[in-house]
Write a structure and sequence with these properties.
The protein is of the alpha/beta class and about 625 residues long. The protein is built from ten helices and 35 strands. Strand 33 and strand 34 form a beta hairpin.
Length: about 625
């Protein structure tokens, strides 16, 4: 993969005049940016015209804006292989906007002991030996890094590894938003893309693209978030870190590292084809030097997809070393090209509330060739949602405000529909309206070889929902006998078997309700109620609702409620029991439940073809 010159959007430069004395100082090729910023005073703008400037360590004064006046990327700062380009050292209120910065002798751009500063629209690449592209450290506070692109950090001295695109330590209230960090492939053995470490607090990574990375990652760390350095006086590398609206693509050694972090929120991200090399996990918990422990990790409304079917065996969330406490997750989509989604002791997707095992319907399934025209925005759009995606309006309600993401990676307000979408990019209202006008079916549509049997399938499901499972089974069996198409016959036969499996599932509940007492949901008084099953027999169950025993016949349990109840009593390691759950769900038209049971069936060693059941809920 070759180096990329990022195509920046046009920029309108406005005078940042805070008072009548604020000046605009123009710099043209042949003159010095460094001399201009030394003359500038608080509130002044240094407007640099298009051209290449050979500069060493530009240190703007407090309150000064330094901008590429002809648009982002037009003014280029070449450090000549010596020192830095821009250095914000003990600065306040400085903005650096629109420059291409490269060819440093160490870090390309560095912020140290500074506050209320902005790095915006920078294209940063080719750091010197031991240098990061963007370095943030030593007590920096209230920094915004926005719409930047960084690649090709410097080599580590004496080691066959390189540094990071962005490296942060001992910093507070830093937001990295709308950036793209990746490796070009020229590095021999790449390290991580980014760190936040060593006593950092309140860090937000929002709407960024991470990847692709280099497959020859020497240390095997995840692309973002790990690492350690220094003393960790607080006992943590990072406290209060939010990863939201990010896209992780082809991060070969895993996407995200939680290295001695506390109060972590991983929300509305999209993870595509990560962790293929060394079979790493997608998110890795690891000790971080003196920070041995991680805790309070929230993982909600993300898309984890591997279209190659190579999701790492260590699971979505794994542990290399260190200790952990309080991992909670919910409402994520998992898809491993139809293969079982691996689980771990930290996160078992099949036990996650609201988990969905469906193709999320992304517009792209693999990273395209990276060209000069590739941008963060183009990648975000490429891995957005198709019309009809299972991620649309699918995010669960969150009582925690940190799990409510107000806008997506492209700035689109959430939600656009009835509920929030899952993943980094929200499906837009105007697209929803156009799709609605094109396709407005008044009932579920059977597709492919099942299309001629759509009415019969709907009738069988209606019978089952009314409690007449035998009539539903007979209807499905009749439909199966009426077709000569192998795929349709297998699916309809599976439907008939699914309605018959309801009796097996009832028996499992009857036999095991005394030894297992899980909380279940039943419909009572017009809404769902939490309950405990106190007895079960051939007629139905008795549920304890607030201490009162209420009899509920089997026929009165809606298919979704019955399936969820049966799943609580079935053995996850039993392939026959998981197959019965999958067949019943598919027969009843329960798409998410079908895939969840099929994932468990395959993980338990099931060998029968699952394609007919998937066809029933496609």
């Amino acid at each position: 993969m070759r180096a990329v010159r990022h195509a920046f959007a046009a920029l309108v430069v406005c005078a940042a005049a805070a008072s009548g004395r604020a000046a605009v100082i123009e710099v043209r090729p042949g003159r010095s940016i460094g001399q201009a910023v030394r003359r500038a005073r608080k509130g002044d703008t240094v407007a640099v015209r298009a051209g290449v400037y050979k500069e060493r360590t530009i240190i703007p004064s407090d309150g000064v804006t330094v901008v590429s006046a002809d648009g982002p990327g037009k003014a280029k700062v070449d450090a000549g292989g010596r020192e830095k380009t821009f250095f914000l050292w003990q600065r306040k209120g400085v903005t650096v906007d629109g420059f291409e910065c490269y060819n440093s002798g160490e870090n390309v751009v560095m912020v140290t002991q500074s506050s209320n500063c902005v790095l915006r629209n920078l294209y940063v690449h080719d750091a010197g030996t031991g240098g990061d592209c963007i370095k943030i450290n030593a007590g920096t506070e209230d920094l915004l890094v926005e719409n930047c692109v960084a690649h090709t950090p410097g080599a580590q001295p004496g080691r066959d590894e390189v540094e990071e695109c962005i490296d942060m330590m001992n910093s507070t209230r830093v937001t990295i938003r709308g950036c793209w960090f990746y490796y070009t492939g020229r590095e021999s053995r790449a390290n991580q893309l980014g760190y936040s470490k060593c006593d950092s607090f309140d860090i937000v990574w929002d709407g960024n693209v991470f990847g692709p990375t280099h497959p020859k990652n020497a240390v095997g760390d995840a692309a973002l978030g790990g690492g350690w350095a220094g003393s960790n006086k607080s006992g943590w590398n990072t406290v209060g870190v939010t990863y939201r609206n990010n896209l992780f693509i082809d991060c070969h050694h895993g996407a995200l590292g939680i290295y001695g972090q506390k109060d972590v929120y991983i929300v509305n991200n999209t993870f595509v084809n990560n962790g293929h090399v060394r079979n790493r996990d997608i998110i890795d918990i690891h000790e971080g030097g003196r920070a041995q422990h991680s805790e309070n990790i929230h993982i909600f409304s993300n898309i984890f997809v591997d279209y190659a079917g190579k999701m790492p065996s260590r699971g979505v969330l794994g542990k290399t070393n260190g200790t952990w406490k309080n991992v909670v997750s919910g409402g994520n989509i998992y898809w491993n090209a139809g293969k079982p989604v691996p689980s771990s002791a930290l996160l078992n997707p099949r036990r996650e509330p609201g988990a969905r095992f469906v193709d999320p319907g992304l517009l792209a399934r693999a990273v395209p060739e990276i060209t000069d025209e590739t941008t963060r925005e183009s990648l975000m759009k490429l891995f957005g949602l198709r019309a009809g995606s299972s991620a649309i309006d699918a995010a669960p309600e969150h009582p925690d405000e940190k799990l409510k993401v107000a806008a997506d990676a492209l700035g689109t307000k959430r939600p656009q529909g009835k509920a929030f979408d899952i993943g980094a990019v929200e499906f837009k209202t105007e697209t929803r309206q156009a799709v609605s006008k094109r396709t407005a079916p008044n009932r579920p549509v059977a597709v492919g070889p099942l299309a001629p049997h759509a009415d019969g399938i709907a009738e069988a499901r209606k019978l089952a929902a009314a409690g007449d499972l035998e009539a539903a089974r007979e209807k499905a069996a009749t439909l199966a006998g009426s077709t000569k198409l192998n795929d349709a016959h297998a699916a309809l036969r599976g439907m008939a078997e699914g309605f018959a499996d309801a009796a097996k599932l009832r028996k499992i509940i009857i036999d095991r309700h005394g030894e297992r007492k899980p909380t279940v949901y039943v419909d009572f008084g017009g809404r769902a109620q939490r309950a405990k099953i106190v007895s079960a027999d051939g007629e139905g169950i008795s549920a304890s609702l607030r201490g009162v025993s209420v009899p509920i016949p089997w026929a009165k349990l809606r298919p979704g409620r019955f399936w969820a109840m049966a799943a609580k009593f079935c053995d996850e390691r039993s392939a026959p029991e998981q197959l019965a759950l999958a067949r019943y769900a598919a027969a009843s038209g329960l798409k998410d439940e079908t895939e969840k049971a099929l994932q468990a069936y395959l993980a338990a060693g099931g060998k029968a073809s699952v394609a007919p059941l998937r066809l029933l809920v496609k």
